[in-house]
Structure formats: C-alpha cells, structure tokens
Specification:
The chain is about 45% helix and about 15% strand. It is an alpha+beta fold. The chain folds into two domains: about 270 residues, no CATH class; about 140 residues, Lipocalin. The protein has an eight-stranded antiparallel β-barrel.
Length: about 425
C-alpha cells in the first residue's frame, strides 16, 4: 500500500465538503422537516452547499481553495504517521460516499417524475396564454407536462440508474446512464435558463469520477482488444460493527429513500400535487370567461387590446386561483429552481415565467358572496381586491368591489365553452377525427 497522494486528498476534500452537510442551517432545517410529507426528504436529498441565495459555479472556486489548503495540511500531518491511510482505502471510501450521494439525488428526482409531479399538466390559464408570453424554462416544463407518460419514463431511467449505483458491481453502468441523462438535464438548464445548472452539473461531475474508475479497463477491452484485469480491491471489515454499519447504511437508504419517500410521492400524486395550490376554488366556476362589461370608477371601458386597465379575460382555476389577462405589465417571476412546498401561498409554479396574466389567490366567503383576492406575484404583493360576486346563471359571474386604492370595479363575465385539443386527443385518441 502507498501513502495517499496530494491530488487524491484534494479531490476527497473537494467532494466531501459538498456531499457531507457542514452548514449549520442544514441541521436547523433537519429538525424542522415534516417527515410525513415527501417535501422533507426531497429537501434533504437536494442539499448543495452555497455561499449566497442560489448555487453558483463561483462557489466551487472557494471549495477548491479550501480543498487545496486542507490537502496541504493533511500531507504535512501524514508525514508523521507510521501507518498512513492508503490510496486504495481512501479511494474506495470516496467512491462509496459519492455512489450513495448520487443515488439519493436520482431517487429524489426520479420518483417525482415517475409519478408525474415535477412538470404538471398545464392549467386553464396556461392553456389560454399566448406561446410568446412564456419564458423558455416554462415552455420546457409545460411541454414535458403534457406528456405524463414520457415524464414517467424519464423518472424510470433515473430510478434505474440509482439502483445500479447502489450495487458495487454495476456502478459504472449506472454512472454511464447518469452521464447521458443528467448531462442532457444540465444542457437543458443552460439552454432554457433553468435554475438547477450548478446542481445538475455537480451530479454529472460525480458520475464522471465514478465512471473514470473502469474507463481504462473498458478502453483496453472494447477498443484496443487487450487482456484486461478486473478490479480486485475489496475492503476489509475486520470488526463486526463495520459489517453491521455497511448493512445498516444500505438498509436505511432502501427503506427511507425508496420505500418511505416512494410511498409519500405515490400518495401525493393522487391527493397533493405540489405545483398547484390544494385549496378548492369556487364550486362549478372553473373555466375561462370573456369580459362582457368592465367599469372602473363608474366609467365604462370598451374592449381594447391596448388598454392597460381593462380586463380582457378571466380564468377561474379548479383551485383557489383567479388569473386576469390585460395589457398591464407584469414583472416576471423567474423563479425556476426545484422546490416542493406544502403551503398554497408558496406554490407559485402557475405564475412563474408568465408575462401575460396577473395571478391572484382568493378566499371565498360563500355566505356573504365575497372574494378576497391577493396578487401572488412577489413583485405585485401590494395589490388586493375585495369583490362581491353574483351568479345569475351557470355561465355568468358578476363581480363588484374595490382594490387597495379604493378604485371601484364592476365586471360581467361570460363563460366561454371552449374545447382544448390536448384534452380531446386524450379522450378520443389520435386516430379519430376531432372537431373543435
């Protein structure tokens, strides 16, 4: 056995400080996690240290500097030891650490794709928003959401890669799948302006390190046709607690990140999809409505494509969201990182990356026929409406009230009985003729 070399020590520390949580905020959040909801486990699996509000590639420069200094100190201290850590042992345990870190990340993402939650089916508001009023990342997400079967397949690929990584004999196969799959995810983040470019490339970097272990043997055997010796290194578990610890670690990962997390995600797919609010909206009101009449401060405003005040159409979602389309500018909410929220007010997927509509959550007082609207965009939080509603028939809603500036409004809405090609194809199949 040889002493550990400086490059290996540097690589070990570089990965260690990004894999083993050293941030005190992680442990603060750890004890506040809701273990009965899949968001808690996803939050743990999605951990990546950072120095600012979001992860940046510049952070890696700091980690590399820390690793370089740490490796120098390690080298100095190791010179005084009679029995230093060997290259083989350190390299083996680093691979174990990275195998499990990568597998846990893939399971966290793979399961919310397998039970298609990450990219949901477009809302009614999304279906009635012009294509050019979405940013690139929203278009990417909605394009995946309309084909849940394909999203499930992508999740299955990630789950398969994770299972292969958890078995020492199939690590290189799993790492190769990750290089192809997560490498494409990384490029998608760059091309579509996604917020997970740093995290996805970190997973690619781990896969590169794991795959590099068998790469020389694969080249010798498959490309050069030379005799190739297998990897014969095996760790020695001389003490019983080491054998027990190894088995306990594997058992914990399977039970916690596959069994428990998988069951929670399965239940959520049927009862609590996390991208849209869970509070039910006004009964039998969901749909798109034309604005037949609009008055502001008792002044009638005729329909106009350029008026920034008059509403053009209104959408009532199945959940407690109303979206209003007008020419009033929207300060875009470009949040596009992957987070799972349990509270409705934090679930902003429906309005992220959309420039044509203002989105409002609302509370309905059905006894007094009152709707209290709150703009959900973080850039327009000051906007509120208190509106009285009447429903003279199943297709008409009349709203009257005022906003936070005491501007009065009177609006008559007529439901548009609209068919959507996506739903017609899903209901009738692609081979049958469809009329819209």
């Amino acid at each position: 056995m040889t002493r550990t070399t400086y490059p290996l020590r540097l690589i070990f520390i570089f990965f260690l400080i990004q894999t083993v949580p050293l941030d005190w905020k992680f442990y603060r959040d750890l004890f506040s996690v809701n273990w009965f909801h899949y968001s808690g486990i996803f939050q743990l699996a999605h951990y990546l240290p950072r120095f600012g509000a979001v992860s940046r590639f510049a952070d890696w420069g700091i980690f590399l500097l820390v690793a370089a200094v740490g490796a120098l100190i390690w080298t100095y201290l190791e010179k005084k030891k009679d029995h230093p850590i060997s290259n083989d042992a350190l390299y083996y345990w680093l691979r174990v650490l990275l195998r499990y870190r990568l597998a846990i990340a893939l399971l966290a993402y793979g399961l919310i794709k397998f039970f298609p939650l990450q990219s949901p089916y477009p809302s009614i508001s999304n279906l009635n928003t012009p294509y050019g009023d979405f940013n690139e990342w929203k278009l990417f997400s909605l394009s995946l959401g309309i084909v849940p079967g394909y999203e499930t397949f992508l999740g299955l690929v990630e789950i398969l890669a994770a299972v292969l990584l958890l078995n020492r004999r199939t690590v290189s196969i799993g790492a190769f799948i990750v290089l192809l799959f997560t490498g494409n995810v990384f490029m998608s983040n760059l091309a579509y302006g996604g917020g997970e470019a740093v995290y996805s490339f970190f997973l690619v970097l781990i896969a590169l390190f794991l795959f590099a272990h068998d790469l020389p043997r694969l080249v010798n055997l498959l490309a050069l046709g030379r005799p190739t010796a297998p990897d014969t290194y095996k760790p020695v578990f001389a003490q019983p607690w080491l054998k027990f610890g190894r088995l306990a670690l594997k058992t914990f990962v399977w039970i916690f990140f596959v069994g428990l997390y998988g069951a929670q995600v399965y239940a959520a797919a049927h009862h609590d999809p996390y991208q849209y609010p869970g509070t039910a909206g006004l009964a039998k009101a969901s749909g798109i409505y034309n604005v037949r009449e609009f008055r502001i401060n008792n002044q009638v405003l005729p329909y106009s494509d350029t008026d920034s005040i008059r509403w053009q159409d209104v959408v009532f979602e199945k959940w407690a969201t109303i979206s209003i389309r007008s020419r009033r500018p929207v300060v875009l909410d470009s949040t596009n990182t992957d987070n799972i929220h349990t509270e409705d007010q934090d679930r902003t997927f429906e309005l992220e990356g959309v420039a044509a509509r203002h989105y409002y959550s609302y509370q309905a007082d059905t006894a007094h026929h009152l709707l209290t609207l709150q703009n959900r965009n973080k850039h327009h939080r000051e906007e509120q409406w208190v509106l009285h509603y009447e429903r003279p028939n199943d297709s008409t809603i009349v709203l009257s009230g005022a906003n936070q500036r005491n501007d009065s409004v009177y609006v008559v809405l007529d439901r548009i009985h609209k068919k959507y090609l996506l739903e017609e194809v899903a209901n009738k199949g692609r081979s049958r003729s469809i009329k819209l």
